[in-house]
Amino acid sequence: MRISAIGEFALIERIRSILPRPHDAILDIGDDCAALRPTAGKDLLLTTDLLVDGVDFTPQTITPFRLGRKAMGVNLSDIAAMGGLPRAALVTLAIPPDEEIEFVDELYRGLREEGARFAVEVIGGDLSASSTLMIGVTLVGEVEAGKAVTRSGAKPGERIWVTGRLGAAAAGLVALKAGCRLRDNRIETPFEASDSLQEAIRQAIERHLCPIPRIREGRTLAEAGAASAMIDLSDGLASDLAHLCRESGVSATIREDRIPIDQTASAIARRFGQEPLTLALQGGEDFELLFTSSWEPADIAAIFPDAAAATAVGTVEEAGYGCRLEQRDGRTVTLTGGYDHFRHQQERMRNQDPVLHRHW
Amino acid sequence: MRISAIGEFALIERIRSILPRPHDAILDIGDDCAALRPTAGKDLLLTTDLLVDGVDFTPQTITPFRLGRKAMGVNLSDIAAMGGLPRAALVTLAIPPDEEIEFVDELYRGLREEGARFAVEVIGGDLSASSTLMIGVTLVGEVEAGKAVTRSGAKPGERIWVTGRLGAAAAGLVALKAGCRLRDNRIETPFEASDSLQEAIRQAIERHLCPIPRIREGRTLAEAGAASAMIDLSDGLASDLAHLCRESGVSATIREDRIPIDQTASAIARRFGQEPLTLALQGGEDFELLFTSSWEPADIAAIFPDAAAATAVGTVEEAGYGCRLEQRDGRTVTLTGGYDHFRHQQERMRNQDPVLHRHW
Predict the structure, then answer these.
(1) Helices A64-80 and A215-224 meet at what angle, rounded to 10?
(2) pTM of this structure
């Protein structure tokens, strides 16, 4: 059945029935505002991120359930990047009236599922008709007063670290653009692929469609006071490192041989004649954390017992150089690139690219 | 110049230069999250409202400056309806890459202007390319702990009140649909109109394009503890009274002869052969406050010295009747109507109505 057949108020009731009654809110859906009681001694963190059909996703490659998870996940990642703990979400949905109600059901189930992993509930929002589908999430989080980890605290001499491994989300996008699809957790490829390549493609697409917000890692760093600056990798390592350097007023050099490339990214890059390093540096949406620290590697290892949890990739330097990559051959090149919503989108409109994602 | 020519990051810098540096935020635009320190003893209020091109406005009838003011104003009104004080805003903008940069400049000037009237600053947000223009504002406000005025507190026997006068915003929309335009505060009509009708049309269109959030009135009611339930009139008196009754589990009767109809609404209704009462009951976007109170009229008058500030329009009754209108002739009719985003929007798409607003 279509949304227009039941109307706005029945749809709101339907959404209320899908969402759990928030245990943490004073007021939730059904009033002019939602209300929360702040925790004493904490600062509020506020972030909002919008996913737009044709720019940030295409319904052809993502189910509404995963889209809901992603819309929540990308916002959770912003809270993680401040060392915060997320608390509650507002969800804005702009949707064509001829869309199926089941689409909305699945979208909110995805939002609920991803939120529940981090004890976050949807406590309010807004619905509107629109010719373009759009999902906006606003997240409220908290962090110990004065302890938010910003982008602007990096100091020359510190090490630059990343959590996890990079390039898988970009590799997943390469696979989607090549016609691979994830259906009910099974992978479909329009070409012959070995079991191991199929598994790499499945993992990479899964990673592209459902980011893993590094809330736990961000909290560990904030509680230990280990990170001087932090940002999440949404636009790509090259671009996000540049943001951090600009806000901190520093330069940075990272070493090619230190960049932890995800093995699915390597396998997929090989298959499609791409450079794994490019996927790791320029591909966005890994949603790992990039942070700087004056701590010795042994001390970072003490708070992250899993050696793969964080890798030192370079050093912060005095302002003036921008961001540089020290290659395996010892040469140093300037890092450029990263995603620009408006420029890339205009190119896309010119090219009429049928699979459109924000990072290409 | 077009947005795509300068790109996302230059556009963000441009927006930062238009917005005042927030005095009230710990962190603002330029980090993964904005940060605020909550006021001790207060609860947080959170609300979000989205304006969509072709649904909530048309660029043909509203300047980007007024659109910015309206996007902020409709959210301020939600904080007013809880008796709260607004603190800070996040702004989400989805915009076609071929839009002019000056459009964005003017939009943010409007957001800044309307926010400044209530000491609210834009402390964060998100930008995305989109084929459909959309502006979303999320507002954070505060209210004394446990003192938010909800929709659910109305009790049988209480009086029902509205602030200000009703119907002007709907009358403004009637005038816009008839081809009247407001340009640089001068009115243009495609027909002969007396000076007084022109002035009525100017005021009504102004009211439609720039709502007046009743923050002061809402605070007065909350501080005095006078209102048992409250809602802002965004969908229309008939519809919003029904929301309040449903959440409170009560019925309501309002009296036709008590409804304070704005005189511009009466003048415009006469000119276009419409019923002023219909504009006041069914027309939305007046953004006055509807509240219930056990207080005597003399006590309400004591907190609102201006007699036009609030008018008693009816009484709360036991559940079971819904919302009724007692007409001048003594007969009682059931109140129906109000705006439904999805149903109205589908009708619009069928009719290809060139002037599209959410309340018709």
Answers:
(1) 10
(2) 0.93
